[in-house]
């Protein structure tokens, strides 16, 4: 999803870790779309957040500021349809799918178990009683807010990865990049946290806060 966004000109950054209550955010700035993603959630939920924000950008456009349950519902349905296409779900779902089947099948679409359970019900593949049963079972197993034993790696940015790799090759410290952008080094680190692999020292300061191109190492007891 991150690669799809970037391939279509969306600038993708991460939300500050100091804002755990915000899952994701999107906006337009002078014709350029931006998406900011939280990086503390599971990979499956991060993918859904990215698709949800893409829904806002596509459905509501640059002039309309989406707000309220109606706009959120539209973006949610967009994300579900994008990640779990109706034809594909219909083709692979058996009659009366069980909770165990959902836990196995979610790997096909790389989505959260609860999201797949909701999609099955949305497509009329489960009854209200079956949907409620799935939700209860998944909640009991810890899938309401997490994806136990997922194994799916969080998506990273190809664009940011290439940019910072080129900067490192040139010997340009990340601290210099932050200064040129008129940002604190910690703020720049927050914007790219989880989206690009960067070496860091014992604190939160990014690569380049010391000798150019060489991370400062310290012993952590």
Q: Segments where pLDDT lies below 50 for 5+ residues?
A: 199-216
Which word captures the global form?
elongated
End-to-end span in angstroms? 38 Å
Please report the number of helical segments.
10
Number of strands: 3
What Rg, in angstroms, do the CA atoms define? Answer: 20 Å
Give helix % range: 40-55%
Tell me what portion of residues adopts beta-strand conformation: 5-15%
User: What is the level 1 CATH name of the largest domain?
Assistant: Mainly Alpha
Q: Architecture of the largest domain in CATH?
A: Orthogonal Bundle
Biggest sheet, strands in spatial order? 1-3-2
Could you spell the SSE succession in H and E letters?
HEEEHHHHHHHHH
Task: Provide an overview of this structure.
The chain is mainly α. The chain has three domains: 2-83, Arc Repressor Mutant, subunit A (Orthogonal Bundle); 86-140, no CATH class; 156-214, no CATH class. It has ten helices and three strands, in the order H-E-E-E-H-H-H-H-H-H-H-H-H. The protein has helices at residues 2-7, 43-60, 68-83, 86-92, 99-109, 113-122, 128-140, 158-170, 174-180, 185-192; strands at residues 11-14, 24-29, 32-37. Strands 1-3-2 form a three-stranded mixed sheet. Helix 2 (43-60) packs across helix 3 (68-83) and helix 6 (113-122) packs antiparallel against helix 7 (128-140). The longest helix is centred in the first third of the chain and has 18 residues, at 43-60. Mean pLDDT is 86; it is low at 199-216.
